[in-house]
Amino acid sequence: MKKLRVIVVTFIALIMSVPVFSQAKKPTIMVVPSDNWCVKNNFVTVYDNMGSTLKIPDYRKALQESTELLNVISKINEMMTERGFPLKNLESAMKSMQNQSAEDAMLSSKSGADINETPIDKLKKVAKADIIMQLTWSVNQNGPRRSITFNLQGLDAYTDKQIAGASGTGQPSFSAELPVLLEEAVLAHIDNFNAQLQKHFDDLFANGREVSLRITTFSSFSGDLESEFGGKELSEIIENWVSDNTVKNRFSLSDATETTMLFEQVRIPLYDANNRPVDTRGWARDLQKMLAERYRITAKLMTRGLGQAQLVIGEK
Predict the structure, then answer these.
(1) 74, 126, 136, 303: least buried by Cβ within 10 Å?
(2) Among 26, 16, 15, which residue's Cα sits nearest to residue 201?
(3) Which residues contact 146 (CB under 8 A, 6 or more apart)?
(4) Could you tell me whether strands 261-268 and 145-156 are parallel, antiparallel, or unpaired per DSSP bridges?
(5) Alpha carbon separation from 195 to 78, 152, 202, 252, 275 (Å, rounded)
(6) Is residue 57 scored above 80 in pLDDT?
């Protein structure tokens, strides 16, 4: 009876643990073709950057003209979805970005300057994915048989750091269908790749998302970061707020002068108390509001991409 009781208790514990694992949060992912693939297939927009040629991936053109790209993204999406990883669709994100671009075209600063962001920065802001899954592939021909060589890179959308990777060449096959060749090549690597993604996301969940914050001042500001408000220097007020509003008080103040502060490796929570996602702009806006409400200090908030915020003290 004693052994039976132990078995029953163990069985009940296992059953109760299943919902816990099934409810574990997964990172949201978006699959994009790599810069290398876009350049090789001439899906780029060319800019003259002060005398040097700059090639920027043109995802819209690639999606409209490459059936191969659509098939490959569809297959990767299918494989990831089967393993429980939610994906953002690149084509849908591009359509949303097109609408946002129309609004941005009408927007400029008070001095007349336009918004300056790269296409990938804009895409990340629209998609709001945790991880960008960058894919490169090429087809190898050996007589009637073909194989595919691929390279997958999982990039943290906020820091652009690579947090997962997989590459390899599939077995030669008589199959002429690219999605089948891709699946055969990727299948042996994808579970390990996903394990790396999940490990990184678990770290974010436990220790916060890594972002950076720069504090600067307008020349019109009557004081500086060493000016005192309520008996404390402004820099101390800001540093204390950052400490209080980061996960486990984790951040690095890598630069601090009377006019500038640079916070790096700042760990902000993924979700707020109401389980709503927290992004860099929303987090930094709370600092902006605190300075205005408590000390009547006006500041302009600017962001670049998903992971960089800048607060300029003095005016908007």
Answers:
(1) 74
(2) 26
(3) 139, 140, 172, 173, 174, 175, 176, 181
(4) unpaired
(5) 17, 14, 10, 29, 24
(6) yes
Q: Count of CB atoms within 10 A of residue 261's CB?
A: 23
CA distance 34 to 137: 9
Distance, first Cα to last Cα, the chain: 75
In terms of Cβ atoms closer than 10 Å to its own Cβ (0-12, 13-18, 19+), residue 95 is: middle
Is residue 225 within 8 Å of 259, Cβ to Cβ? yes
Does the pLDDT of residue 254 top 50, yes or no? Answer: yes
Residue 8 has pLDDT above 50, yes or no: no
What average pLDDT does range 45-68 have in this prediction?
88
CB count within 10 Å of CB 104 equals 14
Q: Average pLDDT of 80-90?
A: 91
Query: Pairing mode, if any, of strands 252-256 and 228-229?
Result: unpaired
The whole-number pLDDT of residue 101 equals 58
pTM of the model: 0.80
Is pLDDT above 50 for 172? yes
Nearest Cα neighbor of 313 from 240, 213, 209 is 213
| Residues 6+ away with beta carbon under 8 Å from 68 | 178
One-letter amino acid of 172:
P
